[in-house]
Amino acid sequence: MKNVWMLVFFIVLLTGCTNDKPKPEGSWIKGTSPFFQEAKIHAAEKKNSKMEVNHFVKNNVVYVECLSSDQSFALSKKARKKGDISINLYVDGKMHTSDIVTAAFTIRDLSKGRHHIRAEFHTFGSKESPEAAEWNVVIM
User: Fold this and answer.
1) Cα separations (Å) of 31 from 34, 40, 65, 72, 76?
2) pTM of the prediction?
3) Which CATH number is 25-139 given?
């Protein structure tokens, strides 16, 4: 009986020590894809800007996340207060979506190929806004 328990323990120990980890379907743009030259878009590196934009591509959907340490997004379009940020989104130079009030959003149904995306930030009730962020994505 003792040998059976030792055998079970040994098998469990060996099966837990593997290096085969599944790869996710999408990948964060951290230099893993040869199609992207920028891992993160740091609009904060420009003057008067404190907005960081990250993006993630999966299939034909681009997931976008905007981070700011000192500015906030509105709870809704109707509940805006002075200083809240909204985003106008351009894909390939054409307006895609205007007045986005959430910090995270998706860009859906992009056609196959390379696309240039620009996010322009607007601060409600103020002339000072973070610099626009631009990046390229490739949809396969």
Assistant:
1) 7, 9, 18, 29, 35
2) 0.62
3) 2.60.40.10
